[in-house]
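Long-time lurker, finally posting.

We've been working with Type-2 ice-structuring protein-like (Maylandia zebra) and I want a structural starting point before designing mutants. I don't trust myself to interpret raw outputs, so I'm hoping someone here can both generate the structure tokens and explain anything notable. Sequence follows.
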Amino acid sequence: MHSSSLLLKSCFLAANLLVLMTLTGDKELSICPYGWTQVGSRCFTYNQTPMSWDSAKRHCWGLGANLASVHTYWEHQRLVQLLGNTPVWIGGSKGLKTAEQRGQRGGRNRTR
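Top reply, 14 upvotes:
Generated this for you. Predicted structure of Type-2 ice-structuring protein-like:
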């Protein structure tokens, strides 16, 4: 596989602490690396290493990947078909903290 054909790598982490990683490629991507399953133009693999969401995110980064996102309903359906009822973590954010939550100006003073 040519590195120029890869646009992005990403990962999933199951809530029962299993890792599912994905590679996202361009339309020319037709063969996934050994141990990966192709879903559309993306490749997925599953790793049963227990870890938290933050640890999984760092694990994915160590592989040159990110926690994945599901892009289409069809992709979601195919992943459910592959994983059964296994709940999974997906990428995203924990949300932005407000100034008050960060203890910055404009928020309540937390040092009383």
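Before you design anything, note these points.
Helices lie at 53-62, 73-83, 99-102.
Residues 37-83 form one domain.
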